[in-house]
Structure formats: C-alpha cells, structure tokens
Amino acid sequence: MAGFQDLLQFVFAGITSGAIYALIALGFCVVHKTIGIVNFTQVDFVSLGGMFLFSGLFWSGLPMLAALPCAVAAVTGVGLVVEYLGIRPSRSQHHLVLIFLTIGISIILRGTMKLVWGKNRMAVPPLLGEEPLRIAGATILPQAVAILVVTALAIGLLIFFFRGTRLGLCMRAVASNQAAAEVVGIPVGRIRAASFALAGGLGGLAGVLVTPITTLSYDVGVLLGLKGFAAAILGGFGSFPGAVLGGVLLGLLESLAAGYWSSAYKDVAAFVVLLLVLFVRPKGLLGR
Amino acid sequence: MIANRERFYYFIYLHRTGLTVAALSTVLLVWPLIESNPYNLGLSNLIAIYAMVVLGLNLFVGYAGQISLGHAAFFAIGAYGSAIGTTTLGGPAWLVMVAVALATALVALAVGVPALKLSGHYLAMATLGFNIVVYTILVQWDAVTGGPSGFSGIPFLRIGPLALDSEIRLHYLVWTFTMLSLLLCLNLVRSGVGRGLAALAEDEAAAAVLGVDTRRAKVKVFVLSAVLAALAGSLFAHCYAFVSPDSFDIFVSVDFVIMVVVGGMGSVWGTLFGTALITLLPEWIEALERFKDIIHGLILVLILLFLPQGLVTGLVDAVRRRIALRHHHA
Fold it and tell me: If you measure CA to CA, which chain A residue comes closest to B203?
C-alpha cells in the first residue's frame, strides 16, 4: 500500500509541475506560431510574474485576489513593450537575428530584475491556505490544487479565445499564412504584438502560480522556462495540445525520476528523455 | 609609375587575407616582449581560448544558419576530459587531448544527427538540454568531477623537457592553436564546402536544389565546431590547472553566442574582435558592476537591431557604401 501511496504522491507532484510547464510551453507556442521564432524572454515572463505578485502584495498592500490579476496584467504589458521596443524596430527579419534579439532582451530583463528586486530569494504566500489535503493517503498542497484549477481554466479560456474571438481568429490566420492574412486586411504587426502580450500573460500566470512553491528570485524562471521550452518541443513545437501533453509528461517524468531514482539527477532524466524522443520522433509527439 | 602603384595595391588586395594573417602573427609573436604584465597576458590567453570556441560556433551559426546554445558543454567535456584523463587516470596530456576531442566528435554526432534532421530550431533545444545535462553531472558527480568546488591539480602541458607553465609560454601555446583554427576556418569558408555552407545559410531550399547535401553539411560543421570547443577546453584546463562547473553553464554558452553576434555572423575576422570585446568588457566596466548584465544585453540588442551583420562587417559595409555613393555622385 505504501508503494501505491508513494506513486500517487509522485503523480500529484508531477502533474502540478507539468501544469506549470504546459502554461510556459503555450507561451512559447503562441509566439512561434505568429512569428516563427523561439522567444527566450518567455523565461523571464515567469520570474516577472512572481516579482509583480510580490510587489503587489507587499509594496502596495493589495489583497491576493487583486494582486494576482494585476501581476498577470503587468507581465502582459511587459510582453507588449518587449515586442514594441525590442522586436519591431529590427531591420532584419531573419529568424536567427530575431531569436538572438530575444536572448539579448532576456539578459536585459534579468539585469533589471536584479536591480529592482535584488538578488535575494524571497517568499510569496500561497493562493489558498497552507494546510495540506489528504487524498487516498497522499498529501497535496492547496497551492497545487490552485495551480491545476487555474491552469485548466486558462486552457479553457485560451481555446475559447482562439475559436470564438476576433483577435484569436486573426492570430490563427496569421499563423497559418501571413501573406494571405495581410491580403485580407489583418494588421499583422498588431497581431504579432498581441502574441507577445499573450505569451507574457501565460508566462506571468505560470510565475504567480509557481513561485509560492519554489520561492522567488530574479532567475527562478530560467530553468522553469527552459523546461517549458522542452515541453513544447516534446509535444511538437507549435502544437497547442502538444504543449499541454508535453508539459504534463515532462512533469510526471521528472517527479517519477526524482522519486524512484535520484532527485539530484531529475533534470538529467528529463532532458535525456527529451533527446531520445527527438531521436526517435524528431517532430515531437503531436507535431506535424 | 602609376601602373606600379596600381599593381602594388592590387597585390595587397589580392593577398589581403594572407597579409593580415602574417601581420597578426607577427604582432602576436612580439606581443609578450612588449607586454610583460602577466595579468594582461592572462587576459589575452583567455581571449585566444574563447576565440577557438567562437570560431567554430561562428561557422555553425553564420554558415549553417543554426543555433547552438550548448557549446559550453563541449568546452566542458574538453576541460574535464583533460583534467580527469591526465590527473585521475594519469594519461599523457597530448594523447588525452586528442582522445577527448575524438570522443567529443562522437557526442556531437549523437546530439546533432537527430536534431539536424529537421529544419527549424530543434537544435537550440537539444544543445540547451545537453548543456544542462552536462552541467548537472559536473555539479552532482563529485566523486569524479570534484563537484561544485571544482577540480584542481591539473598538470601543465609539456613539449619535451619544456613545461608550458608561465603566462608567456602559455601565450605561444594558445595563440598557436587559435591561429591554426583561424587558418582552418579561413580556408574552409573559401573551399567548396564553405561555399555550399554559405548557400545553405542564405536559403536552404536553394542550396539543396544546387546539390548541397544540406543535412550532412550542417552535421559536419556542428561536429567540427564541437571539436574546436573541446580542444579549447583542454587548453583551458591545462592553462589554469583548475576547472569548476561555473565556467561551463548555459550562460557561458549564451556569452559565446553574443561573441558571434557582436563580431558578425559568418565573419571569421569579426569573431576575433567580438571575442576580445566581450571578454574585455567586464574589465572596463568594473565600476558599473551592478549594470553589467544590462550593458551586456543592450550591446547585443543594439547591434542586432541596427547592425545585424555584426559590428565589424556592419561598419565596413557602411563605409564602403559611403565611398561608393561618393564615387557615384562625383
């Protein structure tokens, strides 16, 4: 019975971190779909989400329910600014140049966070209480429940956004054929900006949800973000269901590796499996 | 008289690469006689070592049009391979260096072949993941690698009875390697293989139509660049007699990429300039320690925004354009 309880515990943990990876992976996919690049600032959107939540709670004294949406909105704004000041003025539209630009902007964002919030680790209180719940002998933190519920809601909203709203449909049009979208009068520049904003919102949401568990620092997003990237690739880069599937699988893999093998090498296990999957099925699980 | 002068200019133009290499080699030969400060020599040695990595990486980025965010991992395999091979296993240093370079070639093949099957940016992920795996192993497997506190007591390289143990001797060692790599790259980009690669970077489909085996070409350059990084890593270990995981994390890989971009993607000479600038930058802006990252990032962003061909190529192009326009108007 103890074996089953352990397994259940690892599965809970894996799905929780998997949900976070899925959110980050979705952010990577959105920008990849509209611009065709890997946006490395996604990594810092995650840290920024946590930072803004921290500031909202402790500098402005907002209640949690107000600070959380404010933080996500603020990161959405940062996404817009990044596109407007960093990507749009580029003279070259070459993908390599744009990708390296996002790396440069990511370095600037990290440097700025270090200046504003300092290098120390900070603690962010969880969304719900701290009393762990018990399910079939395994314990689960209320924050993990919050992560799962909010992620599910966000994915639902995202589906609605892409199928039922004008902006979402425009984004899909640009993703499937940019020239054709331009011809029918869709403002491609604005759509690209919107995709950065959406990526910022998704990254920021991942950040506000995960930092109560991980503690907060200016570079907390780096490893989380790169795993989100890995999840996106695992699922098939550019595929939204693939991003969610990839995120959950990566989370499970990592927590099972940590539980049954070694917690020091859990990242190694995750990335080695990713390399193996790329070896067998280079387009990812759901990639076309 | 005029004909002679024209002929002289033409001679210089014709042999510009060879003459520049000769001039640079001469400067490097006499440099330790002028500069005796070991700290400055140490810095220029570091530039030489990084330049080797960045030369290979630039071939890969600039000519094969791909991104690697894991060259610090190949650099690490070279450094730790030499460290463990010569110290723990007691092998002869030069032989270990060659063996490690060969092993790195195999590793690069294993990482590169699947990731380069597809166009797109899968290799960015594969190399990034690979770098994280290597870094984690360096930190965690402390029985073999010395863990986070590093690996010390690596012997200096020897040529016969001569131990390469002072900054000046190391200067000649590392710059010999770097100049050989530079010559290799200069010749490679002018060979059929190099022209094929340049075509590949410009337009993969067009290159394929013209008969360039694009996948093979990309894998070859990737392996070559990994081997150069491994050799540089071995030199790094033997120069400093100490290595620690901090020199090989993903941010170092990102720094290598920045050096490529600053020097100009696809510019062999620019590589030397970019490497020197980014290596020396922390020395110059020490007073601005708090803003170090922001300045680093800003340099990268501004160059990419306004001179996407890199600082050297971009400025040279701008001057050429100016001159051409003046001729046109006159």
Answer: A94
